TrEMBL record:
Protein name: Chorismate mutase
Keyword Isomerase: yes
SUPFAM superfamilies: Chorismate mutase II (SSF48600)
Membrane-spanning segments: none
Molecular function, one GO term: chorismate mutase activity
InterPro entries: Chorismate_II_sf, Chorismate_mutase-related, Chorismate_mutase_highGC-bac, CM_dom_sf, CM_II_prokaryot
Origin species: Paractinoplanes hotanensis
Alphabetical keyword list: Isomerase
The protein's Enzyme Commission number: 5.4.99.5
Residue span(s) of domain Chorismate mutase: 15-96
Amino acid sequence: MSADVMDQNTGAGEPLAADEIRAMRERIDEIDQQIIDLWQERARLSQTVGKTRMASGGTRLVLSREREIVERFREAMGPDGAQVALMILRAGRGPL
Ligand SMILES: O=C(O)C(=O)C[C@]1(C(=O)O)C=C[C@@H](O)C=C1
């Protein structure tokens, strides 16, 4: 691919491919924003659950519930899914 043809922003070697990539990137950006919004909403809910439980005299954590969540992510997405679940959990309840 010659340097004069390559689109600097998309990395594509042809203008049509660059257009396709730009369109797909728009959707990728929308998806990323939804992931961020959902991540933050979940973290807030998780913190509220923890405060509600502790205010009632209960525990900070429920590890059996955390294991179920990690397992659900592992089944759907493999070992990386389990890592994602651990990061999601930490975003809510904080580090163990
Ligand atoms: O479901 C709960 O009981 C929560 O407190 C939420 C949550 C979570 O973020 O999913 C957080 C901490 C607990 O140890 C288990 C799960």
